[in-house]
Design a protein that fits this description.
Blueprint lengths: L1 H18 L2 H36 L1 H16 L5 H36 L1 H31 L6 H8 L2 H22 L1
C-alpha cells in the first residue's frame, strides 16, 4: 500500500508542477474558452455522420445519387491517375487558399491604389526620381551630339578606340553578341 501511495504522490506532484507552468495555464484557459465551439463542431459532425448513415441505408435515395453521379462522372473519363491528381489537389487546397487570399489582397490593394489620385502621383514622382539618373546622361549625350558638327573620320575612330571606356563598351557588346549567338544555336 505504501508503494501505491508514493506513486500517486509522485504523479500528483508532476501534475501540480505542470499546472503551475504559465504556458500550460494559458493553454488550458484558451481550451476552456473554446469548449463551446468544440462542442458545436462535434455535434455538427455527429449530425453529418448520422445523415450520411441514414442516406446510405436508404437504397432508393442512394440509387438516385449514385445513378446521377455515375452519369455525370462518366463524362469526365475518371481513371486512377485523375483520382490521384484530385486527391493531391484536395490535399493542397489549404495552401492554394492561402495563395489565393494573398492574391485577392494584392488585387484589392492595387485596385485601391489605381483609384487613388494621390497614390498615383506619389508613384509617378518616385519613378521620375529613379529614372532621372538613368535618362539624364542619355539626354545630355543627345544634346552634345546635336551640337557637335564635327565630321567623324577614321582617325577619330582610331583615337576613340584607345579610350578605356570605349574598349570596355566594345568588349561588352562583343560578349553580348556571343551570348545571343550561343542561345540562338540551341
Amino acid at each position: 500500500m505504501a508503494v501505491t501511495k508514493s506513486f500517486k504522490d509522485e504523479s500528483r506532484s508532476d501534475w501540480e508542477l505542470q499546472l503551475s507552468d504559465p504556458e500550460i495555464q494559458e493553454s488550458l484557459t484558451i481550451l476552456l474558452q473554446k469548449l463551446p465551439r468544440i462542442k458545436e463542431a462535434v455535434l455538427f459532425s455527429e449530425r453529418a455522420i448520422d445523415f450520411v448513415a441514414a442516406v446510405s441505408q436508404d437504397e432508393e435515395t442512394l440509387q438516385k445519387f449514385i445513378g446521377n453521379a455515375g452519369k455525370e462522372l462518366s463524362a469526365y473519363h475518371l481513371n486512377e491517375e485523375s483520382l490521384r491528381s484530385l486527391t493531391t489537389l484536395i490535399k493542397k487546397l489549404p495552401n492554394i487558399i492561402k495563395v489565393v487570399s494573398v492574391l485577392e489582397d494584392l488585387l484589392e490593394f492595387g485596385k485601391n491604389v489605381l483609384q487613388d489620385d494621390d497614390s498615383l502621383d506619389y508613384i509617378k514622382e518616385g519613378m521620375e526620381e529613379m529614372a532621372t539618373p538613368i535618362f539624364s546622361p542619355l539626354k545630355e549625350a543627345k544634346e552634345r551630339t546635336e551640337q557637335d558638327n564635327q565630321q567623324v573620320s577614321i582617325f577619330t575612330l582610331l583615337k576613340w578606340l584607345k579610350e578605356p571606356q570605349v574598349q570596355k563598351g566594345l568588349k561588352y557588346v562583343h560578349a553580348l553578341l556571343e551570348v545571343y549567338s550561343e542561345k540562338h544555336k540551341k
